[in-house]
Specification:
The complex is a heterodimer of chains A (about 375) and B (about 375). Chain A has about 375 residues and is an alpha+beta fold. Helices cover about 20% and strands about 35% of the residues of chain A. Classes of the chains: A alpha+beta (about 375), B mainly alpha (about 375). Magnesium ion binds next to helix 1 of chain A.
Chain lengths: ~375, ~375
């Protein structure tokens, strides 16, 4: 069974410090929902609110429609996979996995049987008698997941469970986690500061910064249509230009970014805060949206000079300088994108690829 | 071989001195246990004897005190360990300000002199007893009870220190994980924290037991009319010391050594490297198993006991006695020749048991003068000076 979760105006304060700032959120049953944000932005704190280790200073946490205030962590239908996994070092793997059953008074034989089933699920069959210290990082990870699944919780909370793994294993575990989620059909709430992880696995993502939820949406919405400067600069690579709005007719905007002719971009389709003529703005253009002009009269054209290039096989990452501003450029290495390093190069981008947002805090690189 | 420079020898020299300082007294003590001289000493060596152990075995006062000590030790462990553990857990969970204050309070009994604790325990329970009009036979005036409570006050603090150092390494998310998976707080405590603390509980138990066993300052007040091992020993020191005290030391040292050897063997046996070595060598595996070691040491100890029971040194001691008497006889004769007017006290028959004594003094000057620890000797030396 799955249960939906809603956070209603949740605040968490530690003395003067506000760790979570008015979080409003609905997570549907069976959803794979991720929290994405830089270190210290309050992700773990929010997760602890849901699992019951932290009472919100204000606001409500509801699970399956029930207010959870005063319900202890051992009474909630959630299972948390801790940032450090928190496996019991003095117990064998099987005893770790069977712990939730043990505290519920399940007899030893049934426990062992369930542990063996779960070991099968996490692809560690027959390793139940090993010690925790005898497992690799990835295996520990899987044991932690199995332990959380032992009593079939409604909601599985995962706090950066893959952060300690190397890249290969991380990718492998991602697919595996997603497979487990599909297989058992739980609500997954997943915390990460790795955007690739969030984008590939999640149904929806909440991007957080300094305790505030900045944007909620699926991966595509977050990447293509960020609604705040922070999201635009935190998720993926982005070039940011400071400019002024010249006109805005609800469809198109004219923006002067100090690079010759004003740029034309689409007005924000996701309904971010509207910009009026005369407003300052941040104009974001992704490195893959910038291209070398093939024709003299294309729209949003400007001149730039070559600075450096990084060769990555299939892609070339180039830094160009336009009027004192460095811009990143990612080009497919198909032989059509030659750049003359000694002469000015004309660049352009499509109007729908430029995103103008109200100036706000940028993610530090 | 190259000559070592003098500075390079300093660490070696230091270590030698250090170990001599540490173990010298113990070695001397052990040797004196086997010397038939009625005062514990190494020289002059009289006879090799094991009779002091026999004397010890028939010393009812000492045995009764030992029994009391063991009983008190067990009582102290039972009370002090839970208190110490609770204090350590409390300290690990409160905020930093409260922790500093609580820590000072918990640790205070260690800083207070044992004498003060002993006296105050005595007075406190006496007041309470008076309050309830309790008869003198009630536990308010019972030495064992009072001693347990008096010792617990500071031994609980010791064990708290042991627990603290362990609990600081405890990962509190483990408790949270247990709660998250549906454990009640009690289950989380019993199934997660307690197993983690087990080694510390073990060492704190040993520590508390030993601290209780060897305590004197507090016990001497709280024991009232009863006695413990330490109080009996100290009264022995005051009213005449004989090598049966050394025999006690030998037994204690032997027990400690046996325990330490078995413990160390167990540790080495359980290391990964050794597990590899003995993996396919069953004989070596059995031979180095701590159980085997324990059995061997046990048999050795048993052999020592049998030897002690059967060794007979009476011939030698009789010979020594005879020599002494002859010497004294000679001295007396010389003395009466030189100074006929001065009377020398006639040598009395040895009244120190079968071993005879060295009360003559002249033949064997003790490093402590004429064995003033022994009242009989006090008498002799006093009369000598007449
Ligand atoms: N018990 C606490 N007392 C005071 N401040 C706290 C407490 N717990 C967390 N904080 C603060 O709240 C903020 C958010 O912490 P949180 O652990 O939620 O970060 P996070 O987003 O999980 O970061 P990371 O990605 O590094 O794990 C941090 O600035 C942290 O210092
Ligand atoms: Mg965190």
């Amino acid at each position: 069974m799955t249960k939906e979760i809603s956070l209603e105006h949740v605040w968490v304060e530690f003395g003067e410090f506000t760790a979570v700032h008015k979080a409003n959120l609905n997570i549907a049953g069976g959803e794979f929902f991720s929290f994405l944000g830089p270190s210290g932005c309050g992700k773990t704190t929010l997760l602890r609110c849901i699992s019951g280790f932290q009472e919100p200073t204000r606001g409500k946490v509801k699970i399956g429609g029930e207010d959870m205030r005063g319900v202890g962590p051992n009474k909630r239908p959630t299972a948390l996979i801790f940032q450090n996994l928190a496996l019991f070092p003095l117990r064998s793997i099987a005893d770790n996995i069977a712990f939730p059953l043990e505290v519920r008074g399940v007899d030893k034989k049934t426990r062992r049987k369930r542990a063996d089933e779960l070991l099968e699920l996490i692809a560690l069959p027959g390793q139940g008698d090993k010690k925790v210290s005898e497992l690799s990082g990835g295996q520990k990870q899987r044991v932690a997941i199995a332990r959380a699944l032992a009593v079939e919780p409604d909601i599985l909370l995962l706090d950066e469970p893959l952060s300690a793994l190397d890249l290969k294993l991380r990718q492998h575990m991602r697919t595996e986690l997603r497979a487990i989620q599909k297989q058992v059909g739980l609500t997954f709430i997943y915390i990460t500061h790795d955007q690739g992880e969030a984008l590939t696995m999640s149904d929806r993502i909440a991007v957080m910064n300094k305790g505030k939820i900045e944007q909620i949406g699926d991966g595509k919405a977050i990447y293509d249509h960020p609604t705040t400067s922070f999201v635009a600069s935190f998720v993926g690579e982005n070039n940011v230009l400071e400019g002024t709005v010249l006109s805005n007719d609800g469809q198109k905007m004219q923006i002067d970014a100090g690079l010759g002719t004003p740029f034309t971009v689409e007005s924000h389709p996701a309904g971010g805060p509207a910009l009026a003529p005369g407003d300052d703005c941040h104009l974001f253009v992704r490195p893959e949206a910038l291209r070398i002009s093939k024709d003299e009269s294309s729209i949003n054209q400007f001149e730039s000079n070559f600075v450096t290039e990084e060769f990555e096989g299939n892609m070339r990452h180039i830094v160009m300088n336009a009027n004192g501003k460095d811009l990143k450029l990612s080009l497919i290495n198909d032989g059509t994108n030659a750049i003359d390093a000694n002469a000015p190069v004309k660049l352009d981008f499509a109007p729908e690829m430029g995103i103008a947002l109200k100036p706000g805090e940028l993610a530090s690189a | 071989m190259k000559m070592k420079s003098p500075t390079a020898m300093i660490p070696g020299l230091y270590l030698t001195l250090f170990f001599a300082y540490l173990f010298g007294p113990l070695i001397i003590m052990v040797i004196t246990a086997f010397n038939s001289s009625s005062f514990p000493r190494v020289s002059p060596w009289e006879c090799f004897t094991t009779d002091w152990f026999g004397k010890l075995a028939t010393d009812d006062k000492l045995l009764a005190g030992l029994g009391n000590s063991l009983l008190i030790g067990v009582g102290v462990v039972c009370v002090a360990i839970p208190i110490g553990l609770a204090a350590a857990i409390t300290l690990s969970q409160v905020g930093p300000k409260l922790r500093a204050a609580l820590y000072t309070i918990f640790i205070a009994p260690i800083l207070v002199p044992g004498v003060v604790i002993g006296l105050s325990t005595l007075i406190f329970w006496d007041r309470i007893g008076t309050l309830f009009n309790a008869p003198y036979e009630s536990f308010f005036y019972d030495g064992t009870f009072l001693t347990i409570f008096g010792q617990v006050t500071f031994i609980a603090a010791y064990s708290m220190l042991v627990f603290l150092s362990r609990i600081q390494r405890f990962d509190t998310t483990l408790t949270e994980a247990a709660l998250d998976m549906g454990a009640t707080p009690t289950q989380a405590f019993v199934k997660v924290l307690l197993p983690f603390m087990a080694p510390a509980i073990g060492s704190a138990t040993v520590l508390a037991f030993l601290a209780s066993l060897e305590n004197y300052n507090t016990t001497v007040f709280t024991i009232v009319s009863s006695s413990t091992f330490t109080t009996v020993l100290s009264s022995k020191v005051r009213y005449g010391l004989d090598p049966s005290i050394s025999a006690v030391a030998v037994i204690i040292i032997a027990i400690t050594l046996i325990g330490a050897i078995i413990y160390e063997c167990r540790n080495r046996y359980n290391t990964k490297g050794w597990a590899h070595v003995i993996a396919d060598r069953p004989v070596l595996k059995i031979a180095t198993h701590p159980g085997t070691v324990a059995v061997i040491l046990g048999l050795l100890a048993l052999a020592a006991v049998v030897f002690i029971q059967n060794h007979d040194s009476s011939a030698c001691t009789a010979q020594i006695l005879e020599d002494k008497r002859a010497l004294q006889q000679k001295l007396m004769e010389e003395q009466s020749l030189n100074t006929p007017q001065q009377t020398v006290p006639a040598p009395t028959m040895p009244n120190l048991g079968p071993l005879g004594g060295d009360k003559g003094g002249a033949s064997a000057p003790s490093p402590f003068g004429n064995s003033i620890f022994s009242p009989e000797n006090l008498g002799t030396s006093a009369s000598d000076g007449q």
